[in-house]
Automatic annotation (TrEMBL):
It holds the Pfam family Reprolysin_5. This is Peptidyl-Asp metalloendopeptidase. GO terms for molecular function: metallopeptidase activity. Residues 1-20 form the signal peptide. The keyword Signal applies. It comes from the Bacteria. It comes from Stenotrophomonas lacuserhaii. Keywords: Signal.
Length: 370
């Protein structure tokens, strides 16, 4: 089965962290403690082989932490890959993609780190049912690419359940999710950037129903998480994310093509890093839809679908908004577009699959919600 293998081990700070006999991946603590936003490359050791990871996107965070994303090319038999990490006082929160392998790294205290399974392989992307189309009117947005860089400020509301259920630093996980989102924009040439506007923990007790929890998040004056609306204003947050722990799906957006009142998304902590779920949900707010085979609706943009590609006898790939290929494929940090190439293939087409254009049309609107 595709994606079922995880890299068998990890070495950080000179300690074996996994039970597997032979650690296959090593990230030197010395390198990460000296890491800053301008660090051009990090050395990673995979199965005894040094790999230079080149920086693609990085940021010094307000807390003094660092978010850093980079990649390396395939050489000979060795697969290329991507690394995104957040260094916080708790340690390293990271995701490593290599070929079809995906490794999620979490700090568990005392300088120790652990790998976690990723729930995106077990859970559906969303709860059943269509996400409603919001009030966004294509006629009301300017030409694509007209605005300068759109900085989308995100208020993260973590539930107490999520804090209790996550073994690492949940705020760092939120930053990792943001770093991965920003990598997708950078790779795709979308002039947009998400930043953490604030991180709060709500005592709200999750219902187990993601739709209900998201509705309660967005509804002012319903007696549930009502403090969020004042916090959103106070932090000038364009979008609000509920980071949660108990649901039967990875994520949900309130609307496809949202206005300010609908700019709310929910993401399950177990899916928050590795497969661009936050970028996917913000994509829905911007008006982006899934691949046209699974999601043939044409509002708000007929061309606004994700895209997947399945080559014969090889592992396929899918863009941020696409559901899985018929035989399974990995999600890549790209938006669909006829003008972007991945492994020599366009990641979309002009009439049905141009999510890059959707983002370029609506990013300024989202960044202007607060
Ligand atoms: Zn979706």
């Amino acid at each position: 089965m595709l994606h079922s293998r995880l890299l068998p081990g990890l070495l950080l700070a000179g300690t074996s962290l996994a039970t597997a006999a032979a650690p296959s991946l090593k990230l030197q603590e010395a390198a990460t403690s000296a890491l800053h936003a301008g660090t051009p490359a990090l050395m990673l050791e995979i199965e005894g082989r040094p790999v230079a990871v080149r920086r693609e996107h990085s940021r010094a965070l307000a807390t003094g932490d660092v978010a850093w994303s980079g990649s390396w090319d395939a050489t000979g038999q060795a697969a290329g890959g991507e690394l995104s990490l957040v260094r916080s006082p708790a340690g390293i929160t990271a995701v490593v993609h290599r070929g079809e392998d995906l490794l999620r790294i979490v700090p568990v205290g005392g300088g120790r780190h652990q790998t976690l399974p990723l729930a995106t392989r077990q859970l559906p992307m969303h709860p059943p049912g269509d996400i409603p189309v919001g009030p966004l009117k294509p006629s009301a947005v300017g030409p694509a690419g007209a605005a300068p860089t759109s900085r989308v400020r995100l208020l993260v509301v973590a539930t107490a359940d999520a804090v209790a259920g996550y073994p690492g630093d949940l705020r760092a996980l939120a930053e990792l999710s943001i770093a991965e989102s920003n990598l997708t924009y950078q790779r795709s040439g979308v002039d947009m950037d998400v930043e953490l506007a604030g991180y709060v923990v709500t005592p709200y007790e999750e219902s187990g129903n993601m739709e209900q929890d998201l509705r309660r998040l967005r509804s002012p004056g319903d007696g549930h998480m009502d403090e969020v609306h004042a916090l959103r204003d106070q932090h000038a947050a364009d979008v609000v994310l509920l980071l949660m722990n108990r649901a039967f799906a990875c994520g949900l957006a309130d609307q496809i093509g949202a206005d300010a009142d609908g700019a709310f998304v929910a993401v399950l902590e177990q899916c928050a890093a590795g497969e661009y779920v936050l970028a996917h949900e913000i994509g829905h707010l911007a008006g982006a839809r899934h691949d046209i085979k699974r999601d043939p609706a044409v509002a708000p943009f007929a061309f606004g679908h994700g895209y997947w590609y399945q080559p014969p006898r090889a592992l396929g790939w899918r863009t941020v908004m696409s559901y899985d290929c018929p035989t399974g494929c990995r999600r890549i940090p790209y938006w669909s577009s006829p003008d972007l190439l991945h492994e020599g293939q366009p990641t979309g087409n002009r009439n049905e699959a141009d999510n890059r254009r959707v983002l370029e049309l609506t990013r300024a609107k989202i960044a202007g919600f607060r």
